[in-house]
Amino acid sequence: MTSAVSVRGLWKRFGQQVAVAGIDLDLPAGKFIGLVGPNGAGKTTTLSMITGLLRPDSGTVSVVGHDVWQDPVDVKARIGVLPEGLRLFERLSGRELLGYTGRLRGLPGPEVDKRASQLLDVLDLAGAQHKLVVDYSTGMRKKIGLAAALLHNPEVLFLDEPFEGVDPVSAQTIRGVLERYTASGATVVFSSHVMELVESLCDWVAVMAAGRIRAHGTLAEVRGEAASLQEAFLELVGANGRAAGSDLDWLGGGAR
Amino acid sequence: MTNPTPTIVRLKLSLLRNGLRQSAGRRAAYVASAVVVLLFAVLQLLGLILLRGDAHADSVVVILVAVLALGWAVMPLFFPGGDETLDPTRLVMLPLRPRPLVRALLAASLVGIGPLFTLCLVAGSVVAVADGGVAYVVGVIAVVLALLVCVALARAVAAANIRLLTSRKGRDLAVLSGLVIAVGAQVVNFGAQRLGSSGLAQLDPAADVLRWVPPASAVGAVRSVSEGSYGVAVLQLALSVGALLGLIAVWSRHLTRLMTSPDGSTLQAVSEAAVRERTPTGLARLLPAGRTGTVMERSLRYVWRDPKTKAAWVTSLAIGLIVPLFNALQGTGSIYFACFAAGMLGIQMYNQFGQDTSAFWMVALTISSPRDAYVELRGRALALLLITLPYAALVTVLTTALLGDWPKLPEVLGLSFALLGAMLATGAWTSARFPYSIPQEGYKNVAPGQAGLAWISIFGGMIAAALLCAPVIAVTIWLNVSEGGDAWTWLLLPAGAGYGAAITLLGLRLAAPRTAARLPEILMAVSKG
């Protein structure tokens, strides 16, 4: 099996805090890959280092066989990114944003406009294409970000929390587009802390906690004996059996 | 139903009092500003009383009241948060009928420092021009009328624009308010100096028109009565009464509509966008293809659409024009002040990536070689030149025309272009080396903790730019002092332009590899806002 992404000895510290503590990981090509973990596990930091937006303290990352930091020309053209917590150029309209991104990527103008129209249609944004992105809702922002990430038909797509704060209708639209995209052989890597979502979408999972990879493999391998990914996950990050109510026995109906 | 007026007036008083119940620092600022405003009002009052008997007193007071009314009209647009009772949507849940509500809100509007200030000014104006018992009677009516027209004006403007004020566009507008004050202060300062030098008689033509415009017409009526023209006075008072009634009618209609329709901050945005199809400006077709044109187009759009960028640009354009021109008008200016425009506008090249905010990641992902970074920076510099080059030339020509010193035009133009080039070069380099975040909300232009970085970037850059210009400045001085050098000063135009262009290219060449190598660091630095 060829790997879409290969990570070796990746470290990142912010001051005293270790965000990513030595990750080695090979993500298989052509799969729908979920990177799961609790808040603060280092998912965003890891994805930022893989996509070249954050410089690692040490370690190497290669995407489709090219080193991200030595060979950026080959890598940047092949990846699409939808980061979390970073702005878009919000004072452009949705259509202008796609036109701008596509042309920066070096695609010919008419081709950009054609692809933008189709993406806006499929993502249900055609009605809002002339509205400024600053006036978009969260779901619309994620969708326009996804369109911008897909515009140059990347081989690997990185999405950081693509479903966070998104309404069910938009989520379904995003899902549909992503499923169609992976069906053609492309790779999607996305991070999430919603296990049900990861379980229903992904065929390959990596579990992160406290800056390390706790488990990785196909969904079945990671789930193992557990009834659901949620349970397996809680087991892995050591949060299982922490009964929620033992100290709050006064809480609930009845006696005060 | 009980009368809501006392309740709402009490609400206003509570809001005023609560202004004092903040942290010690804010309370001190609040008290200090109130004291300053009141002192200013008292001084104005005294000044106006002293003006009594001056031949042009009536012109002064009419214009003063008109300016005051203008202030009341624009105040709610630029300081929407200033008065919470101005926002009627806060009262929307209460079972109130429009008519009592209008009365109550009007009464509440009369409470506060602003109305007190206005009262002082209008009362002083009446004292300055009133002559005789009838005039004082009319004066009292005029004071009440002018005050009511002012507050009704503010209320009507606020109610008519409440959608704007509570929306994103309103917040964008508020960012520009500091700028309006800065430029306004320059204009007032200049106007005052003109008056100081050539006397109050200059005001008369403007006053002749304004004495018919409410609420200045109410004060105009006092003068008319003093002169015995009772018919004119009645007409002027009637105009103000009419304006008051009209404003209250407009206000109450908007108020009724606001109280009975749903809060439409999102609703309206959707329908508005659906109606307004943006037509392509044609700008794109004129720009070069590829990354250069794409970057230029985005930069130019941001000059207009991004409130922070727009505020910075308008400040630079205004100050760059005002300083050389006003100095020339006062006869004290040197023609070399015209270079100020190029210097002010060149500042816009500084912290280019900070202006992108964290959206810089979209740029960073498409830069994979120093060549990409070079084209990116060059595109931004070209977009800037599209505005600055003609503007700097225009300011230089205007300054020259005012001073009538045409032989000096070529050398000043040459100096301007050289300075602009040096600013672009240092701007590109500091953008790559010392980027910092520009917070999108509020008035601050530097993120906390990055002030030192911003200082290095801007002041270090400006000093470097001045040093880079030294050869051109030296040649200018040499040609001006050496005998027969005057005949050759025209050479400074091509030399300065060439030098500016060369140094810009050099600056971009040096900045590009730094940008390409530091993309993650730049992104981190500009993502703090």
UniProtKB/TrEMBL annotation, chain A:
Pfam families in UniProt: ABC_tran
GO molecular function: ATP binding
Topology of the protein relative to the lipid bilayer: Peripheral membrane protein
Keyword match Cell wall biogenesis/degradation: no
InterPro entries: AAA+_ATPase, ABC_transporter-like_ATP-bd, ABC_transporter_ATP-binding, P-loop_NTPase
Domain of life: Bacteria
Record domain ABC transporter: where: 5-235
SMART domains the record matches: AAA
Compartments (UniProt record): Cell membrane
Keyword terms, alphabetized: Antibiotic resistance, ATP-binding, Nucleotide-binding, Transport
Protein name (Swiss-Prot/TrEMBL): ABC transporter ATP-binding protein
UniProtKB/TrEMBL annotation, chain B:
Superkingdom per UniProt: Bacteria
Transmembrane helix found in the keyword field: yes
Transmembrane segment boundaries: 28-51, 57-79, 100-128, 134-161, 173-192, 230-251, 311-329, 335-353, 381-403, 415-432, 453-481, 487-508
Key words, A-Z: Membrane, Transmembrane, Transmembrane helix
Keyword hit for Ribonucleoprotein: no
Name recorded for this polypeptide: Transporter
Origin species: Streptomyces lanatus
